[in-house]
Amino acid sequence: MIAFEAATRRFGDVTAVDRVGLAIAQGSFVALVGASGSGKSTLLKLVNAIEAPSSGRVLVQGEDVATLDPPAHRRRIGYVFQSIGLFPHMSVAENIAIGPRLGGDKLPSGRIGELLELVELEPALAARMPHELSGGQRQRVGVARALANGPRLLLMDEPFGALDPVTRDALGRRVRALHDRLGLTTVMVTHDMAEALLLADRVLVMEAGRIVADEIPASLLAGKGGDAAQGLVAVPREQAERLAAMEREGEAP
Ligand SMILES: Nc1ncnc2c1ncn2[C@@H]1O[C@H](COP(=O)(O)OP(=O)(O)OP(=O)(O)O)[C@@H](O)[C@H]1O
């Protein structure tokens, strides 16, 4: 579905993405983790032509992204990001329909309701304005909007970053279920290694523009992937161990 061939993106002296070579298979759910500034967002933006490589190539379904019309290419790809970017003066229904509308298509009647149902929102919310929704509901609308064009590829940049842990967990599972049901290929940037391990089939760790680990969750949990990856795995593991220890202490007579 996606191939990076020595893909590099420089901003002045900063090499945000540094000679990345990578193939992402159709149907996979890939999480991209790493420290702030390691290049995760830039790598994602190379896929939907928000950024162009300074050198190297990015291919989507075998086509070099640089040769495609950017707006048409973007309309084929679902994109969800943390700040969502719903238009405040448009209703939920209008926000969901904006992508197809920009492409000259009108969503068939009933499709908005279907998309809302897909992300487990009441059809009645279609008439609301974004400020009348909770953060979690807004984020669900963002996912519905990303799916409006029926994309095969879903890119998510910290999609759940601003949500409370309960909503975040529920929406993560929902997106994974949608990924499976719709046969999507999903690439998700997250700061949260636990989320990556729980949702993804494959976890990539970025450091200074390079992919420094590329493992399945079971391998990361078994200690593979090198120091940077294991440093990230240690955080949720130590938290779980501390909680388990507290629970044991609580149980002691
Ligand atoms: N448009 C830009 N102009 C200049 N520098 C940029 C631009 N976009 C990104 N960078 C720089 O490229 C590097 C990688 O940024 P990027 O946003 O890809 O990292 P990230 O891993 O997604 O970070 P975060 O987790 O904080 O979102 C950073 O040093 C950043 O400052």
TrEMBL record:
<dbReference type="InterPro" id="IPR003439">
    <property type="entry name" value="ABC_transporter-like_ATP-bd"/>
</dbReference>
<dbReference type="InterPro" id="IPR003593">
    <property type="entry name" value="AAA+_ATPase"/>
</dbReference>
<feature type="domain" description="ABC transporter">
    <location>
        <begin position="2"/>
        <end position="233"/>
    </location>
</feature>
<dbReference type="Pfam" id="PF00005">
    <property type="entry name" value="ABC_tran"/>
</dbReference>
<dbReference type="InterPro" id="IPR017871">
    <property type="entry name" value="ABC_transporter-like_CS"/>
</dbReference>
<dbReference type="InterPro" id="IPR050093">
    <property type="entry name" value="ABC_SmlMolc_Importer"/>
</dbReference>
<dbReference type="GO" id="GO:0005524">
    <property type="term" value="F:ATP binding"/>
</dbReference>
<keyword id="KW-0547">Nucleotide-binding</keyword>
<dbReference type="InterPro" id="IPR027417">
    <property type="entry name" value="P-loop_NTPase"/>
</dbReference>
<keyword id="KW-0813">Transport</keyword>
<keyword id="KW-0067">ATP-binding</keyword>
<protein>
    <submittedName>
        <fullName>ATP-binding cassette domain-containing protein</fullName>
    </submittedName>
</protein>
